[in-house]
Structure formats: structure tokens, C-alpha cells
Design brief:
Blueprint (H helix, E strand, L loop, with lengths): L6 H9 L2 H14 L2 H14 L2 H9 L3 H7 L8 H10 L5
Helix pairs in contact: 1-3, 2-3
């Protein structure tokens, strides 16, 4: 019998591909729900090594990064472009 693996592992594997990650974000944007978009950004960040790794490569404080990607607020686009760019994504 074939064993299953956690969905999060599959999601992380898929979201490491910049094209797949961009499609994921595009779909969330089409929904018009910024909270959903923020969750998608967190998923992509996790696929790329997590928030601490993202903090290191963006030179952003990890607390600031958590705040930027919190579901309760949507961050300025300039910061989002920086975060996305480090993951090989363009909006």
C-alpha cells in the first residue's frame, strides 16, 4: 500500500517553482481577497525556507516580516515587491 504524505509537504514542493507560486498568487488576487493573498505569500515564504530565512535574504527584521504578512493588515506594495523578488516572483 502506498503511504500518503502531508499536504504541506506537497504544497511546499509545488511552491518552490516560481511559475507555480506566481499562478497561486494570481489566483488569490483574482479572488480579490487580500487575506487570502497574504496567506498565499506565507505559504510561498514557508516553501522557500520559512520566515527566518526570508528575513535574512530580504534584510528585513523578522518581526517586521511577520507584521507585513499578518492577516490583519496588508503591507505597502514596495515591501511586497522586495519579498516577492527574493523568491524569483514578479507581479
Amino acid at each position: 500500500m502506498r503511504t500518503s504524505r502531508p499536504f504541506s509537504e506537497t504544497l511546499n514542493e509545488v511552491l518552490k517553482d516560481p511559475e507555480q507560486a506566481a499562478l497561486y498568487l494570481e489566483t488569490c488576487l483574482e479572488e480579490g481577497d487580500m487575506k487570502l493573498f497574504t496567506v498565499a505569500l506565507k505559504d510561498i515564504a514557508n516553501a522557500h525556507g520559512g520566515m527566518n530565512h526570508l528575513s535574512e535574504i530580504t534584510c528585513l527584521n523578522s518581526e517586521e516580516l511577520y507584521h507585513i504578512l499578518s492577516e490583519s493588515r496588508f503591507s505597502p506594495m514596495e515591501t511586497l515587491y522586495k519579498v516577492l523578488g527574493t523568491m524569483g516572483l514578479l507581479v
